[in-house]
Design a protein that fits this description.
Shape: globular
Helix content: 40-55%
Order of helices and strands: EHEHEHHEHHHHHEEEH
Distance between the termini: 36 Å
Largest sheet: 5 strands, mixed
Number of strands: 7
Length: about 220
């Protein structure tokens, strides 16, 4: 007797670092409906080694792609974090070479607040903290980070994630995944991942890959 075929579902797992990312992705998940299941996992600022440990313990998760969304600012602050980041990258690269579940490492430099600013079309790389206060109307960055409905706020009144995608697409970045998608088979393959340390001191992100894959 043959085994029943496993039903393929368009399910993604998202590992994210802070409350802002968690709140953003959690609301996005609920707005996507039943076709896409996103599972944000709040890392509570545990660092790159924490990401790697959780990835390894949840390596058998049933999904068609994993996203590991991290901030790059800690690399500049701590040499040990740079080593941990490289280990995280090596682990994701190894998983992608195995051609099992693709691991998309998404790096926001310096942080997710930069991506938040990019939701506003007028943002052209100004100081992130000042822009959040002067243009988004918050007293400080911490008040912005504490906003529960950050997804609705950043996708309202001419603000949209598409502005963020346009703001980083085809721009130089610290890290980039080269991948292919076969929609009919729910098949995603990451061919390779390119890291450019020269971009560490500049604002950049490959967040467009996240939106591209989940919105296919």
């Amino acid at each position: 007797m043959s085994r029943p075929q496993r039903e393929l579902k368009k399910k993604f797992v998202v590992f994210c670092e802070g409350d802002t990312e968690y709140n953003y992705i959690d609301k996005m998940r609920r707005k996507q409906g039943v076709e896409i299941t996103l599972e944000p996992i709040n890392m509570k600022g545990g660092g790159y080694s924490n990401f790697l440990n959780v990835l390894k313990t949840k390596s058998q998760t049933n999904c068609i792609a994993k996203f590991i969304i991290v901030d790059a600012d800690r690399i500049l602050k701590d040499q040990g974090e740079k080593v941990d980041f490289q280990e995280l990258l090596e682990y994701c690269t190894l998983q992608n070479r195995k051609e099992t579940i693709p691991h998309f490492l998404i790096v926001n430099n310096p942080d997710f607040e930069y991506v938040a600013c990019l939701h506003v079309k007028e943002y052209k790389g100004q100081d992130i903290g000042r822009f959040i206060m002067n243009n988004l109307g918050f007293k400080n960055v911490d008040e912005f980070k504490a906003k529960k409905n950050v997804y609705d706020f950043l996708n309202n009144d001419m603000r949209t994630y598409q502005n963020a995608v346009d703001g980083v697409k085809n721009k130089p970045k610290l890290l980039k995944n080269r991948y292919t998608i076969v929609k009919k088979k729910f098949d995603i393959q990451i061919k390779d991942t390119v890291l450019d340390w020269d971009r560490l001191n500049g604002k950049c992100s490959n967040i467009e890959e996240f939106f591209d894959v989940i919105d296919w």
